[in-house]
Specification:
It is globular and about 40 Å long. The protein has one domain. Strands 1-2 form a two-stranded antiparallel ribbon. It is built from two helices and two strands, in the order ααββ. The chain is α+β, with helices and mostly antiparallel strands and 90 residues long. Helices cover 16% and strands 8% of the residues. The N and C termini lie far apart (32 Å).
Amino acid sequence: MIADNISVRIPKNNIIVEIARSFGKPITATSANITGKEPATSVRSLDPKIYLKADMIIDDPDFRPALPSTVVDIITDQPKVLRKGDLSFP
């Protein structure tokens, strides 16, 4: 299946920002939760289905749980918030 749209996310986490900067190209990733379930707030709370299939897991001791990312559809004439999260959007 080919998606009709893409999403772009700029993380606040310095470790992830530095990995992306060093790599020099965009990085693709999925959420660390299964659709409809609560997001993981620690490595220990990851669903085993994700934990066992991950290529890499970074356990950041300074990680602080936050709201999920705000998702905004900007393709239409009137931007529409699809999911309220950490970023406020008019």
